[in-house]
Every structure is written in C-alpha cells, then in structure tokens.
Specification:
Strand order of the largest sheet: 3-2-1-4-11-10-5-6-9-7-8
CATH class of the largest domain: Alpha Beta
CATH topology of the largest domain: Isopropylmalate Dehydrogenase
Order of helices and strands: HEHEHHHEHHEHEEHEHEHEHHEEHH
Number of helices: 15
Oligomer: single chain
Number of domains: 2
Radius of gyration: 21 Å
Structural class: alpha/beta
Shape: globular
Helix content: 40-55%
CATH superfamily of the largest domain: Isopropylmalate Dehydrogenase
Length: 357
Amino acid sequence: MATVAQQLRIAIDVDGGDHGAAVTLPAAAQFLARRTDAHLVLVGLEASLANVASIIPAELAGRVSHVIATEVVGMDESPALSLKNKKNSSLRLALNAVKDGQAAACVSAGNTGALMATARFVLKTLPGIDRPAIASLLPTHRGHGKEGDGGVLMLDLGANVDCTPEHLRQFAIMGAALSSALTDKPRPTVALLNIGEEEIKGNDIVKEAAELIRATDLNFIGNVEGTDVFRGAADVVVCDGFVGNVALKASEGIVKLMAQMLREEFSRTLLTKAVAALAYPILKRFKARVDPSQHNGATLLGLRGIVIKSHGGTDAFGFSNAIERAYDEIRHDLIAELTERVAAMNTAVTTAADSAS
C-alpha cells in the first residue's frame, strides 16, 4: 500500500492557462510552503521549468520533480485536435502522470474542453458513470466556498450542454459524495436547479430527473430556484452544463460589477475617499468572501482520477487554491468514495426496479 507521502503527489500543468509558468510556479511555491506532506510533479516546457530554482525556495525543492513537455495546448485550440495531435503537451503528460500512478491528482488552468476530452480519454470514467461533470464549491451566506465552511457544491458547470435525466441522477450521486467528503456531512442535502420550487415546474428532463433522484437514497429536497443557490438552500445543486455555466458566469459578472460600482462610488469626492479609508477593513473582508480566486478550482467529477480545473486567468493565489482542492480530495480518498457510492446507489435502484416488476 502506498504511503501518505506517496499518495499526496499532485501533477501541475505548468504551461496551462492564460499566464502559464508566471502564475503556476509561484502558486506551487505557496502551496508547498503550506503543505509539508505534499509533493508536486511539475509538467512543462523545458524553458518554463528552467525558472523553478529561482521561484521555489531550496528548502522546498526536495518535494518537487519535473516532467519535460514539448508542446502546449492553446486556450482556443480544438479539443479534438489537441487530443489527437498533442500527445506530448504539458496538459496530456500531467494527466498521464495520474494514469501511470506518478501522481494522485492533476491540476490545470488550461483549455477546459481539451482538459475534459483528454482526461476522459486518458483516465476513463468510473463504473456506472456515463459522463464526467464539472463541480465546484461556491460561496453562500453560510461560508466562503472553502472545505467544510458552508459553501454550495454545484454541478455541472459546463462539461455537458445536453443531459438526460439519468445523467442528472449520476451528477446528484457524485455531487453528494464529493460534498460529504469535503464537509464531513454524511447526508448532504441535494436539489435540482429549476425555474420554480413546485414539482410541476420545469421541462420534462428535469421532472424525470427528480423522480430518478427520489428513487435513490440521497437526501433530496426537490427543486430550488437561482436565488436559492447562494442562499445555501441546499448543500448540492444539480443542473445541466448549459444552465450551470450561464449561472456561474452571470454570478462572476455580478461580483465584478459590484466591485467596479464600489470603486466608482468611493472615489467620487475627497469625502467618499475618506469614508473608503475608514471602511477598508470591511471592504477587505467582503472581497475575501466573494473573490472568485478564493474558491478557485473545479473538479472534473466522474473520472478514474482526480482532475482539478483552475480558472484560466487566475493569479498565483487562486491557482494555489486549486492545488489545495486537489490536496483535499486526495486526503479524503475521493475516487474510492465515489466508486463505492455510485455502485451502492446503482445496486439499490436495480433492486427496487426488480422488486416493482
């Protein structure tokens, strides 16, 4: 059996994202300074890895290994073409490290479509799971979207535009397992995102999905509306990737709008600037609660390995939080937990169907 130190190995796609090594290497240094039991496998171009010694202090360098890549997947590159033509990219080799057992997780800020397509090809899906989903902990009034502090887990956030009711059932099972692992709640509440709380609301897919989820042993509380998500009405909110991605991007846009409005109002006159100085501690705490970089890192849930997608434009602090997400999921043995729960749920559903027939 692997030791804890061996298990806590995380592969980093150094050259992925809008900023590449300029962000990922400082983030790696920040993470290693916090987590003394972790080892990072840095996967990137030779030129990028040449800067490691100047960014990661010597006392941390013993917990770092390198894998040289010869290619990088562009942020606007076709997922299909990158999968076919870039087998030596930093993204692909980081995923290979998980497949080959060199790492227990992969973190990338690269092209989302390419990461999903390549991860699905390299790692495959868990037994009983048709499609992976993108899941992330988001802040609510109960918490900041950090591990165990009252955030809401939402999925799918963009991997699957068109979903069947069965896909939504699988998302609910996986979401409950991840939420339970990260929050230590044995039975987190699960809800479907809908246009109303009533059972008659929504399209046929959502209505049928609700029936399928009710037939499981999940703590299903029914439908919630968009206004309920950040209120913390449920621990897990399930939707298709089209709805989830629009909801996520809209919420991020609102946060940016509020920040811009506050800056404008506080900078209008000498008086408002003075008030801003007095209010600075409050504004700083407010920013910490809503800043997307605080809860950066979405899980590609349903794969036979832990894969974390960071926002492509995040800073080093945000990327270090994405690495932290991978660390938490390794510690909680998420893949084993998911495998067990999906198998148990599917067995229960099959048994119930056989009894009814």
